[in-house]
Design a protein that fits this description.
3 domains; D-Amino Acid Oxidase, Chain A, domain 2; about 35% helix; single chain; nine-stranded mixed sheet; alpha/beta; FAD/NAD(P)-binding domain; eight-stranded mixed sheet
């Protein structure tokens, strides 16, 4: 063991750190806070090239991320004080001419705030607040410098990198035992180490902006429209307006600002949405959306012509890792980005903690490989939720099918396991990785079944037939919600998964007006043949 690889050797002062985090956005600052709470003796630094925190996407949090914020980072009071609680996802469906008034649209939503909390977050505010909290807590914050010339240490050697002040000045060289890339789409390590992979099957694009003066959806429509959700706050939901090939979001932020965005299959992305005026003009082609934007004033605008990409590696035994969009991104539909940050930061914190406790370089590397294999599985499973499925978005019947299966599976498999810290248990991780072929095959079967139902509706000319006047509570597939995060056996999880698959199959047959069939065993849904 070399002196530099001795994990018990104290880290020197000056320009040498225990952990250097490249990027001062949400992912990087959350990791810094987690490390300070877990390993306060370590010297942690965050390097961010900007002097101020700009607005960023990723405002809609879901349950795993919220659990991470509340339990691991102690931010529950902060979230309620500085941001909005989220009233789940809420889907609306239109006619083919996009001319239906909001209150006449079919809707998937909820009638109360969710059992497990989530939040709508202002990213600029969050990043600035986390930076201030971390600075006060002893994290060393370095702003206004561009990271250059990264030299990766091998076999336990320290990493080295230069920071060039963006406003001019002397370049400084820093060293770190652990190096974490949290640089977002700049992907400093991903590009240098050739880790980034372009996602070709999921070809998605997005345009977005923030607006002042967006109408309050809770003041629109008749009393029956508001009463059908028991006057719960629709405005606190992430509103989705779904169309064949694309969807539009509305996310409320503090101080009278609303985030509005479009996500589309790239082949259907409207070129005019690349400009602020063109984006607003496109939005106003939809009657319900236009009613919310009647008096709205744009604040800013952004556009990505390609959203999705992958990484070949999340973590390395050579003491580096990637978190957030520095690693990968899939699609905003279910807001998975902050969930990935929660998992990645938990894994990084555990690896750094093991190293600091004196585990051997080889043992930490072995654990890093395990976490990396699991995250690559999660990456592939998440992409499978979106690939080839944008054509299904515009139909209430198809949307209901997909929503019920996807949200039920999310809670049953991922949320429950995260709340019980199973993602840090070696045996559970190994069992999940071993099941990867079966899980991915079952998701492919679901996609095939969705395609078959879609072809049936399109062939019969009934794709939009239930897009008006219907409503369901989106929690109807969560009959086990009270049990999430509690002690459950693997058999109970599998039994629930079998019920979710059979429920999906039964509903698909109903949409196609086919005769009901006997339930299937779970193994049948994971077999080599389809189930519909």
């Amino acid at each position: 063991m070399t002196p530099e690889s001795d994990s018990r050797r104290p880290v020197a002062g000056g320009d040498e750190f225990s952990v250097a985090i490249l990027g001062g956005g949400m992912a990087g600052h959350l990791l810094a806070r987690q490390l300070r709470r877990t390993l306060p003796e370590l010297r942690v630094a965050v390097f961010e090239k900007t002097h101020r925190d700009p607005h960023k996407l990723g405002e809609s949090m879901v349950e795993i991320a919220t659990h991470y914020f509340v339990r691991k980072l102690g931010l529950s009071s902060y979230l309620y004080d500085r941001h909005y609680p989220k009233n789940g996802l809420r889907y609306f469906y239109d006619d083919p001419e996009r001319n239906t008034p909001l209150e006449e649209m079919s809707e998937i939503g909820s009638e109360s705030l969710p059992y497990h909390p989530a939040f709508q977050i202002d990213r600029a505010r969050l990043d600035a607040d986390l930076s201030a909290m971390n600075a006060e807590d002893g994290v060393e914050i370095h702003r206004g410098g561009q990271v250059r010339k990264i030299e990766m240490g091998k076999g336990g050697a320290l990493h080295r990198f230069d920071v060039v002040p963006v406003d001019g000045g002397e370049t400084r060289t820093y060293r770190a035992r652990w190096l974490v890339d949290a640089s977002g789409r700049a992907r400093l390590l991903g590009k240098q180490l050739d880790l980034t992979e372009r996602e070709t099957e999921l070809d998605n694009a997005s345009a977005w902006g923030r607006f002042e003066g967006v109408a309050d959806v809770d003041l629109i429509g008749s009393e029956p429209f508001r009463a059908r959700v028991r006057h719960t706050a629709r405005r606190l939901s992430t509103l989705h307006f779904h169309y064949p090939g694309y969807w539009i979001w509305f996310i409320p932020l503090r101080d009278g600002v609303t985030s509005v965005g479009l996500v589309s299959d790239s082949g259907r992305f409207p070129s005019e949405a690349r400009t602020q005026d063109g984006f607003l003009a496109f939005l106003r082609q939809h009657r319900a959306v236009a009613s919310l934007l009647e008096r709205a004033k744009p604040v800013d605008h952004g556009c990505y012509t390609h959203l999705a990409y992958q990484t070949k590696q999340f973590f390395s035994g050579d003491r580096f890792g990637l978190t957030g969009e520095a690693a990968c991104f899939a699609d905003p539909l279910y807001s998975p980005g902050s969930d990935f940050i929660a998992l990645e930061n938990d894994f990084l914190t555990d690896l750094i903690q093991r190293d600091a406790a004196g585990e051997s370089f080889e043992a930490v590397g072995e654990r890093a490989a395990l976490y990396d294999a699991f995250m690559r599985f999660r990456q592939e499973a998440t992409l499978a939720l979106y690939r080839g499925q944008y054509d299904f978005l515009g139909s209430y019947e198809l949307g209901k099918l997909k929503w019920n299966f996807d949200i039920g599976s999310y809670y049953n498999i991922w949320v429950d396991a995260y709340m019980r810290d199973q993602h840090l248990d070696r045996a559970w991780l190994e069992s999940q990785i071993a099941q990867q072929p079966l899980v991915l095959r079952s998701l492919a079967h679901v996609r095939s079944a969705m395609s078959k139902v879609a072809r049936h509706l399109e062939g019969a000319g009934t794709y939009h037939r239930r897009n008006l006047g219907e409503y369901i509570d989106g929690r109807e597939s969560l009959w086990f919600l009270d049990d999430i995060g509690q002690k459950a056996t693997e058999m109970q999880t599998l039994e629930r998964m079998g019920e979710l698959f059979n429920k999906f199959r039964d509903e698909a047959l109903q949409v196609m007006e086919a005769e009901p069939r006997a339930p299937l065993a779970l193994t049948r849904f994971m077999g080599r043949r389809g189930f519909l």
